[in-house]
Amino acid sequence: AICGHGCKYGECMGPNKCKCFPGFTGKTCNQDLNECGLKPRPCEHRCMNTHGSYKCYCLNGYMLMPDGTCASSRTCAVANCQYGCEEVQEEVQCLCPSAGLQLGPNGRTCIDIDECSAGTAVCSFSRRCVNTFGSYYCKCQLGYELKYSSSHYDCVDVNECVTNTHRCSLHAECLNTEGSFKCKCKQGYQGSGFDCA
């Protein structure tokens, strides 16, 4: 089975036919499936779509049950949580709908964890970390672009000399480097390469 455009979050089952992993959709399984928009809805009260999955949370005064339903809880109402709560051994704890969020100092609201500055994000050397509310993603470093080759996506060096995105002088030669480029004045000229006289 060969899938010319690849299957980003899935596997190739036949000529250009992808079988997506749960939580993903699209011809090449490159799109996140918004489970919150499915019928029947997976959550009773509120649903938060996450990359490849989703989280359920309840309105204040209710607690989340394991099946995604919300049960009335007088103790939860008193707790005044931003994203619902759960009772653990008769103790009320507020919840955050994502591992990238943590309870704030007041114990009721959720604040974002910046995985990029905390160093907990895992990105390969050719990618840089971009923080989002409740999560993060890995983006190609400057001078690189996302390309699909040999059955996976990779950040590949942009050849600025070929794409004509360099700023070399008309009297200079463009030399491609990993992630960047250099300009060298042609014979008979001198200067920085951006300016040659």
Strand portion, in percent? 35-45%
- Describe the biggest sheet? 2 strands, antiparallel
> What percent of residues adopt helix (DSSP H or I)?
under 10%
- Estimate the mean pLDDT confidence: 85
Distance between the amino and carboxyl termini: 57 Å
Number of helices in the DSSP assignment: 3
- Order of helices and strands, N to C? EEEEEEEEHEEEEHEEEEHEE
Short summary of the structure?
This protein is mainly β and 197 residues long. The protein has helices at residues 74-79, 115-118, 160-163; strands at 10-14, 17-20, 24-25, 31-32, 46-50, 53-57, 62-64, 70-72, 85-88, 91-94, 101-103, 110-112, 127-132, 135-140, 144-149, 152-157, 172-177, 180-185.
Description:
The chain has 197 residues and is mostly beta strands. Among the domains are: 114-148, no CATH class; 158-196, Laminin (Ribbon). Helix content is 7%, strand content 40%. It contains 3 helices and 18 strands. It has helices at 74-79, 115-118, 160-163; strands at 10-14, 17-20, 24-25, 31-32, 46-50, 53-57, 62-64, 70-72, 85-88, 91-94, 101-103, 110-112, 127-132, 135-140, 144-149, 152-157, 172-177, 180-185. The strands form 9 sheets. Strands 1-2 form a two-stranded antiparallel sheet. A two-stranded antiparallel ribbon has the order 3-4. A hairpin with a 5-residue loop joins strand 7 (62-64) and strand 8. It is elongated. The model has no long low-confidence stretch (mean pLDDT 85).
Features:
197 residues; single chain; 18 strands; 3 helices; mainly beta; two-stranded antiparallel ribbon; Laminin; two-stranded antiparallel sheet
